[in-house]
Write a structure and sequence with these properties.
The chain has about 475 residues and is an alpha+beta fold. It has helices spanning about 1-5, 10-20, 20-30, 35-40, 40-55, 60-75, 75-90, 100-130, 150-160, 165-175, 185-200, 205-210, 210-215, 225-245, 250-265, 340-345, 350, 445-470, and strands at about 355-360, 360-365, 370-375, 375-380, 390-395, 400-405, 410, 415, 420-425, 435-440. The chain folds into three domains: about 1-270, no CATH class; about 280-335, no CATH class; about 340-445, Immunoglobulin-like, CATH 2.60.40. The strands form two sheets. It has a five-stranded antiparallel beta sheet. Strands 3-4-10-6-7 form a five-stranded antiparallel beta sheet. Strand 6 (about 400-405) and strand 7 form a beta hairpin. It comes from Lentilactobacillus raoultii.
């Protein structure tokens, strides 16, 4: 924020409003770690674009670092931010000095190319696998079927959920103070209003959802993922507001805001976010898979697979020291088949239950017989196997990946089974066997990693050079 406002005070206030909003804390509690990790980079991406368009375009690398940080953390948020940055550029293109537009566009093109190079380490392997075989994709959701109801959003914010009480205040009453705000502060407020309108049920998604571009954007799966952009704009407006209205009592205002924010966070009923904590038979939203097989974090499933309490009133449930670890939900199956080979997706239940097939006969591999290492899985099988029989292991084999398979320490060739897994031809009769499968990444993985590494080294050298020069 300091890159935009040229003020440490505004930047510090922005950090309070943006960093302590309940929406971001909610992402930690609901274990949406990828989305949470992307949020600090969203303001940096916008600040980098602002620098490239209106300030020092030689600081284009800030835009690169911001967008790459989001890409490394969460793919759908990357799509949201890239679209938002493009819209920002088109809206304010004419605000740039006419004689500088071509130069600034040139540096933005460098940013785009450099971002592509640095992102190869993430997107390169995925592109390789996608081109090598047909993969299952995250289930798309039509944005016009999943808008954010403004009335519900306001109610949640009053209860200090969603955008939270503080930012809700700026959203509702901010227009009263626009005249006393600097231009960037006013634009931040209107940006928050416009972005909130786009993700709300007031936006006419039903009229434009059929357009090819909109259908591509539906990969974000849900409109609520646009909310961090709303929070960023409202937090920026709030920072300008407090700095303008309490300039002579800035330190006291910061202390009060921090204390008030922590009080709000402390009063927040985190477990109210967990309808998924209820048992499968009692929760109509959770009917895909048995959630009891793979606990998340340190949650220990109770016999009823729910938070230990006498009733199901999640709104009134409070977390204390004794049951803190019990607040986390068990696996609900969401995303369980994303990016699996389509052939393997039909066998997801038996693969998740570690079902192997020996010469046509299925058997379950015990959990303590499986050992994981650095990109390697080792099976210790206490099962008699005859020479020339076939063993189908519950390990998915991607066509675009390189693997090394060893049978009792000796390399062994493998083939693809009908389940999309490793199929081995037993080399000799044994009563027990140790089988290891090690992944070496995609066929072009080393090239992608090298290009990204060279890109980062170049960026570091550029930063050192600029610092010495200044």
């Amino acid at each position: 924020m300091r890159l935009v406002a040229q003020s440490r005070r505004v930047a510090f206030l922005f950090a309070i409003f943006y960093g302590l909003t309940t929406y971001l804390v909610m992402e930690i509690i609901t274990t949406q770690f990828g989305e949470f990790l992307s949020y600090p980079f969203i303001p940096l991406a916008f600040a980098g674009l602002y620098q490239a368009m209106f300030k020092d375009y030689r600081r284009w690398y800030l835009l690169v670092i911001g967008v790459i940080g989001i890409m490394y953390a969460h793919a759908p948020t990357s799509l949201i931010v890239i679209v938002a940055l493009l819209i920002f550029y088109l809206i304010f293109f004419t605000e740039q000095p006419v004689n500088e537009r071509l130069t600034r566009f040139f540096y933005l093109a460098i940013s785009a190319i450099y971002t592509l190079i640095l992102s190869l380490i993430v997107w390169g392997p995925l592109a390789t696998l996608t081109l090598s075989q047909k993969l299952m994709r995250p289930e798309p959701q039509n944005l016009y079927k999943d808008p954010q109801n403004l009335f519900t959003l306001f109610n949640q914010s009053i209860a200090n959920k969603g955008i939270g009480l503080i930012l809700l205040f700026f959203l509702i009453f901010g227009f009263l103070f626009l005249k006393s705000m600097p231009k960037v502060g006013r634009l931040a407020y209107f940006g928050g209003i416009a972005t909130l309108f786009v993700l709300s049920n007031l936006f006419p998604w039903n009229l434009i959802h059929h357009l090819p571009l909109i259908r591509g954007i539906e990969a974000i799966q849900s409109g609520h993922r646009i909310m961090p952009v709303v929070l960023m704009f409202l937090a920026a407006f709030g920072a300008y507001f407090i700095n303008a209205k309490f300039n002579h009592h800035w330190l006291s205002a910061c202390g009060l805001l921090i204390g008030f924010s922590f009080c709000l966070l402390n009063s927040f009923s985190y477990s109210a976010l967990y309808p998924m904590n209820v048992t499968t038979s009692q929760n109509p939203f959770d009917n895909q898979f048995d959630r009891t097989s793979q606990p998340e974090l340190s949650y220990k499933a109770t016999p009823t697979h729910q938070i230990p309490r006498s009733n199901l009133n999640l709104q009134n449930y409070k977390v204390n020291n004794e049951d803190y670890n019990n607040q986390f939900p068990t696996d609900n199956g969401s995303g369980r088949t994303d990016y699996l080979p389509t052939t393997s997706g039909h066998y997801i239940d038996e693969l998740a239950n570690k079902a192997a097939i020996l010469n046509g006969q299925s058997f379950k591999i015990a959990a303590d017989s499986i050992q994981s290492g650095s990109n390697v899985i080792t099976y210790h099988l206490q099962v008699p196997m005859k020479k020339a029989t076939f063993l189908d292991l519950p390990f998915i084999r991607y066509t675009g990946m390189n693997y090394t398979v060893k049978f009792n320490g000796h390399p062994l060739k493998s083939s693809l089974s009908k389940r999309g897994t490793f199929k081995l031809r037993i080399p000799k009769t044994v009563n027990q066997a140790t089988i290891s499968i090690q992944s070496h990444g995609t066929k072009l993985g080393s090239l992608f990693s090298m290009l990204s590494l060279l890109g980062w080294l170049g960026l570091i050298v550029l930063g050192i050079f600029r610092k010495r020069r200044s």
